[in-house]
């Protein structure tokens, strides 16, 4: 390759693309190298028998602040989920919704048989505080684990175990709820303020939309990086000389390129995709297991929210399990029969997607959630392990890293 450019970005995921967008806007010469043959990193979509299969169950929250900087979410043609959950508890399927988003569902939520009325009032107060208080106050509150924070809010064991643990374990990919209370606050804030949806063309449409304004000839796919050093990036095609390097790959790969980085523990999960001739539910709503069986984190009929996820006459169901060990598909199918309360015998198992390094663990202390992106000597790092473990965190970290690069280039 033997090239020279001001900034090399390693990694074409959300963080790398956000960094490229900011540098491009600033008029700084840059180049992005990506080891695989596509953009998006951990956000990807495949097509199986006409169904859109995301690389694990993922959704987009319209309240993510950085999204508005990078694209108009209207261009994604989002299909939305109900702002609430269904809880399977014995023979009953209980519906709890956000009364702000779903006013007609408020009375049913108040009387639903999960925890007590006081639980629901206390949780509503917790979520409202996260939605309305300044971020600086939320991040200045005493930090603890998510589970401890929920119990300190006065929530009962039943409410936590039957609703919040199964729901939040799918959000954090953390069954123990050891995730920082500050991450919890940011998640509750985004859920209260935004809507949850799926792009009509699959989650892969998100990175493609972010990359759309970038010149294609500056995006080098199928270009693995072997070594990073101040002022130089070594690829299989040759060295690239540069003034700054932004390493925006997943945490294990980042640690391999930048040995001074602390090791980041990753959470894993598995999503089972089934196709059915009839939907087991007609509502686009997440279903969780309130029976404390701790097998299925959640299941949802994706095509109820985004009909484009399944071909005509079929319906796509995604079921997620937290942890490194994936149960056999027949075990999951039996659980789905119980959860939905109907036979799954005519369902087709499309595929099982295991994501062993899906999301960085974020136990306390996380501080202000923003970890340094400038490492010195023209080396920078970006990714959701530098901010909150989320799409928002990945985009924000890339944007911050690019800002730090611009500051250093101007100073130099």
TrEMBL record:
Gene3D superfamilies attached to this UniProt entry: FAD/NAD(P)-binding domain
Ranges of residues in domain Amine oxidase: 14-406
PANTHER family in UniProt: AMINE OXIDASE (PTHR42841)
Chain ranges passing through the membrane: none
Pfam families cross-referenced by the UniProt entry: Amino_oxidase
SUPFAM superfamilies tied to this protein: FAD/NAD(P)-binding domain
Protein name stated in the entry: FAD-dependent oxidoreductase
InterPro entries: Amino_oxidase, FAD/NAD-bd_sf
Tree of life domain: Bacteria
